[in-house]
Amino acid sequence: MRLQLSTWPDIQQYLEHSHGIIVPIGSTEQHGPNGLIGTDAICPEVVAHEVGKRIGVLVAPTLSIGMAQHHLAFPGSISFRPTTLIAVIRDVVQSLARHGFRNIYFFNGHGGNVATVNAAFAEIHSEASFTGSGTSAPSLKLANWYMGRRVQAISRELFADSEGAHATPSEISLTWHAYPDHAQPMTLEPRLAPSSHFGDARDYRQRFPDGRIGSDPSLASIEAGTRLFEASVEDTIEDYRAFVQTS
Amino acid sequence: MRLQLSTWPDIQQYLEHSHGIIVPIGSTEQHGPNGLIGTDAICPEVVAHEVGKRIGVLVAPTLSIGMAQHHLAFPGSISFRPTTLIAVIRDVVQSLARHGFRNIYFFNGHGGNVATVNAAFAEIHSEASFTGSGTSAPSLKLANWYMGRRVQAISRELFADSEGAHATPSEISLTWHAYPDHAQPMTLEPRLAPSSHFGDARDYRQRFPDGRIGSDPSLASIEAGTRLFEASVEDTIEDYRAFVQTS
Amino acid sequence: MRLQLSTWPDIQQYLEHSHGIIVPIGSTEQHGPNGLIGTDAICPEVVAHEVGKRIGVLVAPTLSIGMAQHHLAFPGSISFRPTTLIAVIRDVVQSLARHGFRNIYFFNGHGGNVATVNAAFAEIHSEASFTGSGTSAPSLKLANWYMGRRVQAISRELFADSEGAHATPSEISLTWHAYPDHAQPMTLEPRLAPSSHFGDARDYRQRFPDGRIGSDPSLASIEAGTRLFEASVEDTIEDYRAFVQTS
Amino acid sequence: MRLQLSTWPDIQQYLEHSHGIIVPIGSTEQHGPNGLIGTDAICPEVVAHEVGKRIGVLVAPTLSIGMAQHHLAFPGSISFRPTTLIAVIRDVVQSLARHGFRNIYFFNGHGGNVATVNAAFAEIHSEASFTGSGTSAPSLKLANWYMGRRVQAISRELFADSEGAHATPSEISLTWHAYPDHAQPMTLEPRLAPSSHFGDARDYRQRFPDGRIGSDPSLASIEAGTRLFEASVEDTIEDYRAFVQTS
Amino acid sequence: MRLQLSTWPDIQQYLEHSHGIIVPIGSTEQHGPNGLIGTDAICPEVVAHEVGKRIGVLVAPTLSIGMAQHHLAFPGSISFRPTTLIAVIRDVVQSLARHGFRNIYFFNGHGGNVATVNAAFAEIHSEASFTGSGTSAPSLKLANWYMGRRVQAISRELFADSEGAHATPSEISLTWHAYPDHAQPMTLEPRLAPSSHFGDARDYRQRFPDGRIGSDPSLASIEAGTRLFEASVEDTIEDYRAFVQTS
Amino acid sequence: MRLQLSTWPDIQQYLEHSHGIIVPIGSTEQHGPNGLIGTDAICPEVVAHEVGKRIGVLVAPTLSIGMAQHHLAFPGSISFRPTTLIAVIRDVVQSLARHGFRNIYFFNGHGGNVATVNAAFAEIHSEASFTGSGTSAPSLKLANWYMGRRVQAISRELFADSEGAHATPSEISLTWHAYPDHAQPMTLEPRLAPSSHFGDARDYRQRFPDGRIGSDPSLASIEAGTRLFEASVEDTIEDYRAFVQTS
């Protein structure tokens, strides 16, 4: 059930029996020579939409732009500053809380979002914590699709040490499952990209000239993507249900 | 050409011959008893994607959430505060400017965004204006799909005084063209919603109990949506080209 | 009745029978070769003071500085960033609301303020809209003196296509009515200034070398100013009364 | 020479021989039972205008609203939060610096502004100090009219221990000199208002029920105001000249 | 009694009989050729800890960084922008208010903090003042150790006109009392540093090449520090008690 | 070598051969029934000071307050909002960068700081990343003392599953090593505190009534603290040296 394709009376009815919602969050950033710029938004979006269909949970519009300052030296990357993303998350949560949503599950596709989204959660909770007021913010969770139990098993099985940390064969496979017309198999040189820490965008591009970190996306395939998709849908149904029950 | 479905080398190549981009911007807010909550994002998105296909212009991911504080008393509406939306637009523009985009065309579906987006443009220009520095921000334009010449002619022809100001038959028709499975023809009571100014969300809901302003969306149809879609695509191609040439 | 020239017991008494106030808002910015830098503040101020005298409505001190980033390449212009002006308006409204004012009428002399002031209104309303709390902000209106019905009739009659968009003969006439010693009739070359869109201050100055947009202020006169003054006073009394009655 | 009553070519010419400007800054706040709400803005404004006439220095429009949170329990008081006032001062200084002003003299009428204006100066200087960049902000000074040497001598002579700290006979006299029609001589009970520290607006009103602190404004007179006006003009000419020469 | 060395049950117990706390606040900034960079934090810290021991008042951890933008041209200085320091103070006060502290005594070692800390107090009080809500912030005071009655008597006696305004023999003596191993007696050239106003860091360093203002720290001694320490402890006990009783 | 106990000429000399600095960062928050409120600041501080002594690296003053909103329902806890802590870190880094420090090593004692400090690093890097300017921020690292290799080995050996996540026997042992007079051995009921996720302060206190998460601090001892201290010093020397060499 997609929020964008619902009417307000639909949502009013939904809230009578559920107070949970999934908010896909990604990024718009380079994903190496053959990875789509929308990879980190596409992955959680397609999984969330399928979860929405299977178990009837409401899915908010995807937050397609995240914290990607380190990718800005590659054309096409768009980033929010952390303080902007904190304001974005705060306003989304407060809007949803206004309507009575009590369990807000951010379903994330971008490692670079994790610190800032958690800081945003703490900023939101601070309002109640500083005043000691009676009303708390909704229960908030950030889940990363690539951290799911079933997903990680498949990644290890298929890609092992070639998975890497950015522009991974797993995420690229999943986008090709979603958009098979955009699959661009390609051999890369070096096969495995380098790995290290990094700072700003200039530093990132010097360390990782084609954008990848530690990965070999030449291993990506639509077939792998289809397996990962199904695995992530199952992981997410399980995790979302646990979240709603315990929070 | 969609940014999300491109790779960074694609964008590098694109920038060799063009410095323009379309950024669809909408809202996630109630649109009356049978209008989709995503109406204001869907309308500019589907038109922009078609424009991208026809003339090869790059289209950024849709900014699906806008300034909709007055709709927050209806379940499902999500809003950014104006200062949040200003930060969002600033970061998007600065990211694109970093790559060399010089003509950024915000293609909008929500009247409530207009003031804040224009304030954001002024905030962005202020950086250069206050310092007198040599580098200016890109050329920025906000265009509303519902203000196109061809679109307005069709709206007047089909809906005349029943168009109204919110949850209009025109925008609802266009979303039904895009998502025919979600078309929900419906007779409403009163046929024409009331019209007036408004303040905050509580005030809005008191004045417009079912969410519409001055409109009769029972007149909406997929056929009208198809005509409006084609008209808006033509309006936008014309207007975008003029923007790029004169800025 | 001017706030600055009242005592607090005067205001306490005023609030027993009225909850309305007029806040003149303008700008401090170049107005072409012979227009006063204070034009946009002077115009609403002198009209508001007269309205205050005639119908006893309270008039706040003029907010003399507005959003004028595009004029900063001309000496003497002073601007607030949009986010600064939003904070200014918010604090003024919250101060007045604290005392029980329920109808706050911003009377404006500068087109460049419109987007930001409306964004500020939305920012103010957001507080109640996001929380759903019981107390709303006061009713807020932005009215532009140059948009009044009677004023526009005179402008069309006297200046027609020579009115233009900045440093107009109408506004300059009105300042000369207010400060006849500062009237500087002058023939300009070209007679009619160019018209176009613009971005930051450097861009503005390149497009409009003497500061005017589309206007011929050589047509300005004290006599025209006197007629416009009287017309604006009448427009404003009518509009303010309608505002207070319907909000 | 008033900025509001000048044209931009006037200012261009002025900047050829001077880089100094006076910015009157005050407050809009209760001043006891018979003091004008605009007292703190009127005092520096009338003195600055006279200084402008006598020595040809440029005078900016008065910043009529200051930091007056502690007065908000009295009807008619308007305040900026400190962070708002810091943004206001920063934008004014940056606008003036853009044109080449190098000596900006804030001429103040409100003790409650002093801390925040000084914090604003430090905020402005921080830009250059943190980066170590070559361009510094202009030289900035905050001068209080009531601290002038000649002014203080007259206050002591005329009012001695009845001067107090808020709604003082000196400032009220000066406003009556400026607006003799608004002089409201009045005997107050108690003759001398109480004195103490204070916190927020509620606390202030509990401690100072009629708004005065430690003062007896029944001693105010137009005659005293005329003497103070002349003294302040002389003090200010002297102090402004010293500022421009040493900075 | 130090907060950092207490448990939460200790503080719960403390709050049953007292609602006061001392918060030492200083700066991390150059103090001339032989003064410690931590001088302004060390001085209030050591005095506050002793006061805590003698009268059992709770002492918060020292806020070691203050507003020191003008010192940033000297290696080792660290500064907060005024707006950052305002946020710091606000969060500390709101945290303490949450637990029931009603008397918060900021004990300061740095003149450069005074304006910003007072602006922060006003920002904190604004919350209650703008809304008129029933709950006020705690009572707040900023006290400077070097302004104590006994301390000033000793400074005048020992150092007279050689005390100066920055890197004074008094503060350096007190740090040597606290850290005798770091005493570095030194003769300076010129004996007395220059005095004047200043702006940003570059300007400061040009005017005061070795960092001192108007002082002769060659007069500093451990013995003087010990006398000043004892004097400041007594001053502070007296002043803190008066604060708690009257607020 | 401690920054607070150095003079500016000392730092000038230091910068001739090194561009690295350690900034201890902790928190002021409840640590269960017998843990010190300063635990998270004390741990990194004492280790950093020893590292400073052994290898001559400069150590900044400890940032004693961190992001601890979830602890605010326990008396004595003080927290910064995430946006405040971001501003704090930004100003500290920019101050140090001004002097030429290129390797800034934040040495942390509080898990709750991790997300916000990493968001702060991204906020700092954004400045260069968005503009593409030539100057990058310094190299930044956040290291947690409790994650050191040697430290974790000892924790596992001594406390195994009783270590838990907050108020752990390891951190409490280390504070007792530092402040043996404040060791308060105590048996707690239940022996092992509960474990779960949490939201705001009220939620935290309901889930963890005495403040601990999953730990049994009755196992803490001075002896364990001494071993952990030595291990952490060695871990940190190794990690700091690697950081300086590779960044």
UniProtKB/TrEMBL annotation, chains A, B, C, D, E, F:
SUPFAM superfamilies: Creatininase. InterPro entries: Creatininase-like_sf (IPR024087), Creatininase/forma_Hydrolase (IPR003785). The keyword DNA damage does not apply. Its EC number is 3.5.2.10. It is an enzyme of class 3 (hydrolase). Its cofactor is Zn(2+). GO terms for molecular function: creatininase activity. Coiled coil: none annotated. Keywords: Hydrolase, Metal-binding, Zinc. Pfam families: Creatininase. The keyword Hydrolase applies. Belongs to the creatininase superfamily. This is Creatinine amidohydrolase.
